[in-house]
Amino acid sequence: MGIQTKTVEYKDGDTVLEAYMAWDDSGSDVRPGVLISHAWAGRSAFEESKAVQLAELGYAGFALDLYGKGVRGTNPDENAALMKPHLDDRAMLQRRMKLALEQLRKQKEVDAGRIAAMGFCFGGLCVLDLARTGADVLGVASFHGLFGKPGNLDSRSMSAKVLVMHGWDDPMATPDQLLALAEELSAAGADWQIHGYGNTVHAFTNPMANDPVHGTVYNADADRRSWQNLQLFLAEIF
Fold first, then answer.
1. What is the pTM of this model?
2. Which pLDDT belongs to residue 155?
3. Residue (of 79, 101, 205, 76) closest to 144 by Cα position
4. What are 160-179's pLDDT values in tens digits?
5. Domains contained in the chain, CATH given
6. Confidence (pLDDT) at 87
7. What is the predicted pLDDT for the residue at 73?
8. Residue 17: its pLDDT value, please?
C-alpha cells in the first residue's frame, strides 16, 4: 500500500505523550526503528516529515513527544519555557526518552533489536543523553544539537555509536563545547564521528530558519550533506 502513519499515545505518570509514527507497509517484514527527538517547540510537522522520509528509506520513523499531547510552542519565549524544565531536570528528560524508546520497541512493525535515535537542536542534546544513559540503541545522530553534559550521570561506557553534524559557527554550541563533547565521547569509549560544516550556524536543516541575528539560518548544502551522512550511518549500524 505504501507509507502509513499513526499516532501513539503513552504516559509519563499523569502526563499523556503522543508520538507520530510512519512506515512503509509494502512488505510484511519488520524494519529498523528510528526515534526522532524534536526541537524546542515540541513535536511538529518538521519532525513528522522526517519520520515519513525515514519510512521512504525502509525504516520506521517515530517522532517522539517530550512535552505532552498537544503541547507546542509558537514563539521563542514559549519554546524556551517548554524546554527549560527538561534542561533543569535531565533525569526527567532521560526518563521520557527511554519511555519513547520502549514504545517504539513495542510497535509490531518494528524490529526491536535494531533501534537508533536522531534529534534536532534541543533534540540533538536529547539523543546524546539517551546514549549517555547506556540505553540499548545501536546509534544516535545529532543535527545542530546542544552538547551540555548532564550532571546526574556518573562517567560510564557508551555502547551506542554517535554521529554529530554541527554548524561550525553555531553560537549555541561553540568550538570549545564541541571539543569537550569529543573528549567526553572518547573517555566513554564511544565509536564517534563529528562532521563540521563551515560558514554554517544553528538550525541549518530547517527551511524556515532565517534569523542571522540569533544565529539560526537554513543552509541547503549542510542540510543535504547531513542527511546523506545520516543515511550512511543508519546503513552501517543496521
1. 0.96
2. 67
3. 205
4. 999 999 999 999 999 999 99
5. 3-237 (3.40.50.1820)
6. 96
7. 96
8. 98
